[in-house]
Amino acid sequence: MNSFSFFMPTRVFVGSGCVKENAALFGELGKKAFVISYKIPGRFYAMEDVADVLAQHGIDHIVEDEIEENPCVETIVRVAKKGLEAGCDFLIAVGGGGPIDAAKAVGILMNNPEIDPYDMFTNEKLKGLPMIAVPTTAGTGAEVAHWSVITRFDTQTKQAIKPWVHPVYAFLDANYLMSMPLRLTRATALDALGHCIESYVSTASNPYSRGLCETGFRLFAKTTDALRKGEFTLETREYQMVISLLGGMANNQTGTCLPHGMSYALTHNKHIPHGLACALLEGEYLRIFKNKELVTHIVNECGFKDVDEFADFIAEVLKDIKLDVTYEELEGYAREFAEQKHRFARHPEPAGYDEVLQIYTRSLLR
Ligand SMILES: [Fe+2]
After folding, report:
1. Of 16, 23, 151, 239, which sits with the fewest C-beta atoms within 10 Å of its C-beta?
2. 194 CA distance to ligand 1 centroid (A)?
3. What is the distance in A from the centroid of ligand 1 to the CA of 1?
């Protein structure tokens, strides 16, 4: 068995109305809040609840709602400057993985205004400001993940910052997911499942992380009909929120495996959103395994009779996604990926260029 330790200091609340029910906790973290979010069409119930709580407790705040999907260093620097100028001393991230990851990095720069912003990629000792996460999607697990992934234009990559940053509180209210568009729902749900799958098979897994993933698989089985039909009850949304939470906690132990690493080429070159890029690859990823017993166990727990049924399900729920990519481009992505040997470190079987190309082509040239 792998030796392991776990550290999950975020106090997580799950349930309808949990933001307002725990309003008193907001005032514990500071005097002036910096609310970090993005713009969405229609009513933004999570933002309304947070604004009500802050008003009710007389907590001054400012809002930054121009966070892009994959926040870059330049955004983090701009937003941190705004927060410092306003005298904010804690952060509230409201949104998907973008705002939550941005808030983690902004907190580091606000708390260490003297550093070079790129030090956050190398200096693990940096500490951030206290923060609260209010997720409004169910995919990333960023509300409990200890990392924050930031886009770097200087190296043309996405990179995790070095210090561990856990929110102090995370409030998971599935009502905030009810108006999520179907395409985003499917992509984020499969991203969350991918976190559980890739963590479960990882060479770094342990009994604790595998237990989290197995619970995620069993909850996923309760959501497959809804994902097919595109009709979601509050209960289904709650399951999705918890799968994301469990995947985040499991990923803290293990990181991810091949599909996540392979997805970056699709996001970078084809501008496919992260969740979708990973989701597209998960079915064919399981097909390359020689350990059929392991794969059968995973897909059975997820409610499928075999890996073919699982891969067909992925293809069915993502059938509307049209990706304009050629075989030659996929060969290029596979070659570049296969050259980075560290990318295979946590995949439990021998694999290389051929397996990577097979996953890409069978997933994307349908
Ligand atoms: Fe992911």
Report:
1. 16
2. 7
3. 26
